[in-house]
Amino acid sequence: MALDLITVTDPRSPVAEAYRSLRTNLEFSSLDHPLHTLLVTSPGPDEGKSTTLANLAVTTAQTGRRVIVVDCDLRRPRQHEIFGVSNGTGLTTMVRDEAALTRPPLQKTQVAGLWVLPSGPLPPNPAELLASQRMSQVIERLMQSADLVLFDAPPVIAVTDAAVLASKLDGVLLVINAGSTKRQYALRAKEILERVNARLIGAVLNNVVLDKTLHTYYT
Ligand SMILES: Nc1ncnc2c1ncn2[C@@H]1O[C@H](COP(=O)(O)OP(=O)(O)O)[C@@H](O)[C@H]1O
Ligand SMILES: [Mg+2]
């Protein structure tokens, strides 16, 4: 298990407390339309999307709800590393294989009520796969097995994957990195999501300072 799962390794820390506040704030911001599916993304790479999503999943499962984490970053999947599970089968298996659609290859985690659907083998055409009718069936199927399904995705700006997925889900949480996200990129990400009629629930301010630029990732 990676150190990134601070809600598991150090649940009493201020950082874990911050993730619990995020969970509570999300509940309050969606009172009239409870979220069953939520996308977590950000304008650029390495802004803390995957880490934020994983810890939000843990704190939500800790309230007794059934949670599934789906790794839809089919370019740089990371949830299997964070939760220490195999990436051999997963989302792409479910998209391809009828039997897996019926019985999702979910991986148990060390947290009760929390399952991970890793990316599975990486396809050559992630955006197309995420846009497919079959992907919509996968989403429907996962919703039957959990109270909350959280989707990890690539950055919004470099590739269309996140926007494609956003249009199929109940809401989007945008991670903004206080150290590295440029204002113009945050606004651009918001515009892209609004264009596909995504429901932007809110933004999380993450504070990693990383010495990388937006373009080192998917170009
Ligand atoms: N709040 C934070 N404080 C310190 N390091 C963080 C924080 N959030 C993320 N990181 C680290 O930054 C790197 C990128 O995080 P990740 O969640 O994989 O980003 P993304 O999914 O946006 O590419 C990881 O090594 C992770 O451990
Ligand atoms: Mg990520």
Would you give an account of this structure?
The structure is a single chain. With 219 residues, this protein is of the alpha/beta class. The chain is built from ten helices and seven strands. It has helices at 6-9, 14-29, 49-61, 79-83, 91-96, 98-102, 126-131, 133-145, 161-166, 183-195, and strands at 37-41, 67-71, 107-108, 114-117, 148-152, 171-177, 200-206. Strand 6, helix 10 (183-195) and strand 7 (200-206) form a beta-alpha-beta unit. Mean pLDDT is 92; it is low at 209-219. Adenosine-5'-diphosphate binds next to helix 3. The site of magnesium ion has 5 residues, from helix 3.
The CATH level-2 architecture is identified as 3-Layer(aba) Sandwich
N→C terminal distance:
29 Å
Order of helices and strands: HHEHEHHHEEHHEHEHE
Q: Strand percentage, roughly? A: 15-25%
Q: Any idea of the CATH class?
A: Alpha Beta
Q: How many strand units?
A: 7
Strand arrangement in the largest pleated sheet: 3-4-2-5-1-6-7
Total discrete domains? 1
Q: Assign an overall shape.
A: globular
Average residue-wise pLDDT: 92
Low-pLDDT sequence parts: 209-219
| Small ligands present | adenosine-5'-diphosphate, magnesium ion
